[in-house]
Design goal:
Layout: H1 3-58, E1 70-72, E2 85-87, H2 88-103, E3 110-112, H3 117-128, H4 139-142, H5 146-154, E4 170-173, H6 184-196, E5 202-203, E6 223-226, H7 227-240, H8 260-265
Antiparallel strand pairs: 1-2, 3-4, 4-6, 5-6
Helix pairs in contact: 1-7
Protein backbone atom coordinates (compact mmCIF):
# COMPACT_ATOMS: atom_id res chain seq x y z
CA UNK A 1 0.00 0.00 0.00
CA UNK A 2 2.89 2.37 0.63
CA UNK A 3 4.07 2.07 -2.94
CA UNK A 4 0.86 3.42 -4.46
CA UNK A 5 1.53 7.09 -3.68
CA UNK A 6 5.01 6.71 -5.13
CA UNK A 7 3.50 5.41 -8.37
CA UNK A 8 0.96 8.23 -8.47
CA UNK A 9 3.50 10.95 -7.80
CA UNK A 10 5.23 10.82 -11.22
CA UNK A 11 1.85 10.90 -12.90
CA UNK A 12 0.83 13.92 -10.88
CA UNK A 13 4.09 15.64 -11.66
CA UNK A 14 3.65 14.86 -15.36
CA UNK A 15 0.12 16.23 -15.32
CA UNK A 16 1.26 19.35 -13.52
CA UNK A 17 3.95 19.72 -16.16
CA UNK A 18 1.39 19.39 -18.94
CA UNK A 19 -1.14 21.83 -17.52
CA UNK A 20 0.71 25.04 -18.53
CA UNK A 21 1.52 23.55 -21.94
CA UNK A 22 -2.11 22.64 -22.57
CA UNK A 23 -3.27 25.97 -21.20
CA UNK A 24 -0.82 27.79 -23.45
CA UNK A 25 -1.94 25.77 -26.47
CA UNK A 26 -5.58 26.51 -25.69
CA UNK A 27 -4.77 30.19 -25.34
CA UNK A 28 -2.94 30.12 -28.68
CA UNK A 29 -5.95 28.47 -30.31
CA UNK A 30 -8.28 31.05 -28.77
CA UNK A 31 -6.03 33.90 -29.93
CA UNK A 32 -5.91 32.45 -33.43
CA UNK A 33 -9.70 32.11 -33.46
CA UNK A 34 -10.07 35.70 -32.27
CA UNK A 35 -7.57 36.85 -34.88
CA UNK A 36 -9.52 35.05 -37.61
CA UNK A 37 -12.77 36.60 -36.42
CA UNK A 38 -11.17 40.03 -36.29
CA UNK A 39 -9.74 39.58 -39.79
CA UNK A 40 -13.15 38.52 -41.06
CA UNK A 41 -14.74 41.57 -39.45
CA UNK A 42 -12.12 43.83 -41.01
CA UNK A 43 -12.64 42.29 -44.45
CA UNK A 44 -16.42 42.54 -44.08
CA UNK A 45 -16.11 46.18 -43.05
CA UNK A 46 -13.79 46.92 -45.96
CA UNK A 47 -16.20 45.23 -48.35
CA UNK A 48 -19.12 47.21 -46.93
CA UNK A 49 -17.18 50.47 -47.23
CA UNK A 50 -16.21 49.64 -50.81
CA UNK A 51 -19.79 48.81 -51.73
CA UNK A 52 -20.99 52.03 -50.11
CA UNK A 53 -18.51 54.06 -52.16
CA UNK A 54 -19.52 52.19 -55.32
CA UNK A 55 -23.21 52.84 -54.62
CA UNK A 56 -22.49 56.53 -54.06
CA UNK A 57 -20.72 56.64 -57.42
CA UNK A 58 -23.31 54.61 -59.33
CA UNK A 59 -26.10 56.86 -58.07
CA UNK A 60 -24.21 60.04 -58.94
CA UNK A 61 -23.93 61.35 -55.40
CA UNK A 62 -20.60 63.10 -55.94
CA UNK A 63 -19.10 66.17 -57.57
CA UNK A 64 -17.19 65.26 -60.75
CA UNK A 65 -15.09 68.42 -60.43
CA UNK A 66 -13.62 66.98 -57.23
CA UNK A 67 -12.58 63.65 -58.74
CA UNK A 68 -9.16 63.01 -60.29
CA UNK A 69 -10.58 60.46 -62.74
CA UNK A 70 -12.75 63.10 -64.43
CA UNK A 71 -11.75 65.75 -66.98
CA UNK A 72 -13.37 68.95 -68.19
CA UNK A 73 -14.90 68.78 -71.66
CA UNK A 74 -12.97 71.29 -73.82
CA UNK A 75 -14.98 74.43 -74.56
CA UNK A 76 -14.54 73.77 -78.28
CA UNK A 77 -16.77 70.70 -78.03
CA UNK A 78 -19.11 71.93 -75.30
CA UNK A 79 -22.54 73.09 -76.46
CA UNK A 80 -24.26 72.41 -73.15
CA UNK A 81 -23.85 75.93 -71.83
CA UNK A 82 -22.21 74.90 -68.56
CA UNK A 83 -18.90 73.32 -67.51
CA UNK A 84 -19.12 69.60 -68.22
CA UNK A 85 -17.05 66.65 -67.06
CA UNK A 86 -16.43 63.09 -68.24
CA UNK A 87 -14.39 60.14 -67.08
CA UNK A 88 -11.00 60.69 -68.69
CA UNK A 89 -11.25 57.45 -70.71
CA UNK A 90 -14.64 58.52 -72.11
CA UNK A 91 -13.35 61.95 -73.07
CA UNK A 92 -10.25 60.53 -74.76
CA UNK A 93 -12.38 58.12 -76.78
CA UNK A 94 -14.73 60.94 -77.80
CA UNK A 95 -11.85 63.18 -78.91
CA UNK A 96 -10.46 60.35 -81.04
CA UNK A 97 -13.90 59.91 -82.57
CA UNK A 98 -14.08 63.65 -83.28
CA UNK A 99 -10.88 63.44 -85.34
CA UNK A 100 -12.30 60.64 -87.45
CA UNK A 101 -15.60 62.49 -87.90
CA UNK A 102 -13.80 65.69 -88.93
CA UNK A 103 -11.96 63.74 -91.61
CA UNK A 104 -15.37 62.73 -92.99
CA UNK A 105 -16.79 66.24 -92.76
CA UNK A 106 -18.98 65.48 -89.72
CA UNK A 107 -18.89 67.79 -86.71
CA UNK A 108 -19.43 66.32 -83.25
CA UNK A 109 -19.90 68.13 -79.95
CA UNK A 110 -21.36 67.37 -76.54
CA UNK A 111 -24.74 68.70 -75.44
CA UNK A 112 -24.69 66.90 -72.08
CA UNK A 113 -22.12 64.83 -70.21
CA UNK A 114 -21.91 63.83 -66.55
CA UNK A 115 -25.00 64.77 -64.57
CA UNK A 116 -24.80 64.00 -60.88
CA UNK A 117 -27.72 63.19 -58.58
CA UNK A 118 -28.43 66.80 -57.68
CA UNK A 119 -28.44 67.91 -61.31
CA UNK A 120 -30.80 65.09 -62.26
CA UNK A 121 -32.97 65.82 -59.21
CA UNK A 122 -33.38 69.46 -60.22
CA UNK A 123 -34.22 68.43 -63.77
CA UNK A 124 -36.75 65.87 -62.57
CA UNK A 125 -38.37 68.08 -59.93
CA UNK A 126 -38.70 70.99 -62.36
CA UNK A 127 -40.57 68.76 -64.80
CA UNK A 128 -42.66 67.36 -61.95
CA UNK A 129 -43.75 70.84 -60.78
CA UNK A 130 -44.26 72.21 -64.29
CA UNK A 131 -41.37 74.67 -64.10
CA UNK A 132 -39.86 72.91 -67.13
CA UNK A 133 -42.32 72.06 -69.90
CA UNK A 134 -42.39 68.54 -71.31
CA UNK A 135 -43.29 68.49 -75.00
CA UNK A 136 -44.65 71.99 -74.48
CA UNK A 137 -46.88 70.96 -71.60
CA UNK A 138 -46.99 71.84 -67.93
CA UNK A 139 -47.35 68.33 -66.50
CA UNK A 140 -48.55 69.62 -63.13
CA UNK A 141 -51.64 70.93 -64.93
CA UNK A 142 -52.05 68.40 -67.74
CA UNK A 143 -51.25 65.25 -65.73
CA UNK A 144 -52.59 65.83 -62.20
CA UNK A 145 -52.43 62.12 -61.38
CA UNK A 146 -48.98 61.80 -59.83
CA UNK A 147 -48.27 58.22 -60.85
CA UNK A 148 -49.20 58.97 -64.45
CA UNK A 149 -47.06 62.11 -64.32
CA UNK A 150 -44.14 59.98 -63.08
CA UNK A 151 -44.56 57.67 -66.09
CA UNK A 152 -44.81 60.61 -68.48
CA UNK A 153 -41.50 62.10 -67.30
CA UNK A 154 -39.93 58.63 -67.52
CA UNK A 155 -40.44 58.52 -71.28
CA UNK A 156 -37.25 60.55 -71.76
CA UNK A 157 -35.87 61.50 -68.32
CA UNK A 158 -34.18 59.14 -65.86
CA UNK A 159 -35.15 59.10 -62.23
CA UNK A 160 -32.40 60.65 -60.04
CA UNK A 161 -30.04 57.88 -58.98
CA UNK A 162 -30.73 55.75 -62.05
CA UNK A 163 -29.24 57.77 -64.90
CA UNK A 164 -26.31 56.49 -66.96
CA UNK A 165 -25.19 60.12 -67.10
CA UNK A 166 -24.17 59.74 -63.45
CA UNK A 167 -21.23 57.54 -64.44
CA UNK A 168 -19.20 59.87 -66.67
CA UNK A 169 -19.52 57.36 -69.50
CA UNK A 170 -22.52 58.72 -71.40
CA UNK A 171 -22.85 61.73 -73.66
CA UNK A 172 -25.58 63.47 -75.61
CA UNK A 173 -24.10 64.34 -78.98
CA UNK A 174 -24.79 67.65 -80.75
CA UNK A 175 -28.42 68.10 -79.64
CA UNK A 176 -30.61 66.22 -77.17
CA UNK A 177 -33.72 66.67 -79.27
CA UNK A 178 -35.33 64.31 -81.75
CA UNK A 179 -36.23 67.24 -84.05
CA UNK A 180 -32.53 67.87 -84.76
CA UNK A 181 -32.03 64.28 -85.86
CA UNK A 182 -34.93 64.60 -88.28
CA UNK A 183 -33.10 67.32 -90.20
CA UNK A 184 -30.74 66.52 -93.07
CA UNK A 185 -27.75 67.48 -90.95
CA UNK A 186 -28.93 65.45 -87.99
CA UNK A 187 -29.64 62.41 -90.15
CA UNK A 188 -26.11 62.60 -91.52
CA UNK A 189 -24.62 62.79 -88.02
CA UNK A 190 -26.69 59.82 -86.85
CA UNK A 191 -25.79 57.75 -89.91
CA UNK A 192 -22.10 58.42 -89.25
CA UNK A 193 -22.43 57.55 -85.56
CA UNK A 194 -24.32 54.34 -86.27
CA UNK A 195 -21.54 53.20 -88.57
CA UNK A 196 -18.47 54.50 -86.74
CA UNK A 197 -19.15 55.11 -83.04
CA UNK A 198 -18.77 51.40 -82.13
CA UNK A 199 -15.20 51.56 -83.49
CA UNK A 200 -14.39 53.97 -80.64
CA UNK A 201 -16.24 52.01 -77.95
CA UNK A 202 -19.57 53.85 -78.07
CA UNK A 203 -23.01 52.26 -78.16
CA UNK A 204 -26.51 53.74 -78.43
CA UNK A 205 -28.36 52.43 -75.34
CA UNK A 206 -31.80 53.76 -76.21
CA UNK A 207 -32.69 52.45 -79.64
CA UNK A 208 -36.22 52.03 -80.98
CA UNK A 209 -38.49 50.06 -78.69
CA UNK A 210 -39.42 46.61 -79.94
CA UNK A 211 -38.88 42.92 -79.41
CA UNK A 212 -35.19 43.36 -78.56
CA UNK A 213 -35.89 46.31 -76.24
CA UNK A 214 -39.44 46.05 -74.96
CA UNK A 215 -39.01 48.35 -71.94
CA UNK A 216 -37.17 51.53 -71.05
CA UNK A 217 -36.94 55.08 -72.33
CA UNK A 218 -38.01 56.25 -75.76
CA UNK A 219 -35.43 56.24 -78.55
CA UNK A 220 -32.58 58.73 -78.12
CA UNK A 221 -30.39 59.05 -81.20
CA UNK A 222 -28.20 61.56 -79.38
CA UNK A 223 -27.32 59.39 -76.38
CA UNK A 224 -24.12 57.30 -76.66
CA UNK A 225 -22.40 55.27 -73.98
CA UNK A 226 -18.71 54.39 -73.66
CA UNK A 227 -18.95 50.63 -73.19
CA UNK A 228 -15.48 49.72 -71.87
CA UNK A 229 -16.55 51.44 -68.64
CA UNK A 230 -20.33 51.49 -68.82
CA UNK A 231 -20.73 47.71 -69.14
CA UNK A 232 -18.98 47.25 -65.81
CA UNK A 233 -21.04 49.98 -64.14
CA UNK A 234 -24.26 48.46 -65.49
CA UNK A 235 -23.37 45.10 -63.97
CA UNK A 236 -22.37 46.70 -60.66
CA UNK A 237 -25.62 48.65 -60.57
CA UNK A 238 -27.61 45.45 -61.06
CA UNK A 239 -25.74 43.77 -58.21
CA UNK A 240 -25.54 46.61 -55.68
CA UNK A 241 -28.52 48.94 -56.06
CA UNK A 242 -32.06 48.13 -54.96
CA UNK A 243 -35.21 50.15 -55.37
CA UNK A 244 -35.00 51.02 -51.66
CA UNK A 245 -31.90 53.07 -52.53
CA UNK A 246 -33.79 55.19 -55.08
CA UNK A 247 -35.33 58.14 -53.26
CA UNK A 248 -34.94 61.82 -52.44
CA UNK A 249 -36.95 63.53 -55.21
CA UNK A 250 -40.54 64.45 -56.05
CA UNK A 251 -42.76 61.41 -56.51
CA UNK A 252 -40.24 58.94 -55.12
CA UNK A 253 -43.04 57.07 -53.32
CA UNK A 254 -44.00 55.55 -56.69
CA UNK A 255 -40.59 53.92 -57.25
CA UNK A 256 -41.58 50.49 -55.84
CA UNK A 257 -44.46 50.23 -58.31
CA UNK A 258 -42.50 50.86 -61.51
CA UNK A 259 -39.70 48.25 -61.68
CA UNK A 260 -37.17 50.97 -62.49
CA UNK A 261 -34.03 48.84 -62.38
CA UNK A 262 -35.15 45.99 -64.63
CA UNK A 263 -37.28 48.03 -67.01
CA UNK A 264 -35.19 51.20 -67.27
CA UNK A 265 -31.62 50.87 -65.99
CA UNK A 266 -31.35 47.47 -67.66
CA UNK A 267 -33.91 48.17 -70.38
CA UNK A 268 -31.29 49.14 -72.95
CA UNK A 269 -30.04 48.03 -76.34
CA UNK A 270 -28.76 44.44 -75.85
CA UNK A 271 -25.59 45.41 -77.73
CA UNK A 272 -24.76 47.74 -74.82
CA UNK A 273 -25.04 45.09 -72.11
Amino acid sequence: MEKTPRRILPTVIFILFLIPIIASSLLDLERKREDRLLQQEILAEQKAQKETLEKIYLMGKFEPAQRRDFRVVPTKYNVGGYQMYLKKETLNAFLNMVKAADADGVKLSIASATRNFNYQKNLWNNKWTGFILVNGKNLLETVPNEQERFKEILKYSAVPGTSRHHWGTDIDINNANSVYFETEKGEGVYAWLTKNAPLFGFCQPYTLSGTTRPTGYYEEKWHWSYLPLAKTFTEEYKNLITEKDISGFDGDKYVPELNLINDYVLGINPDCL
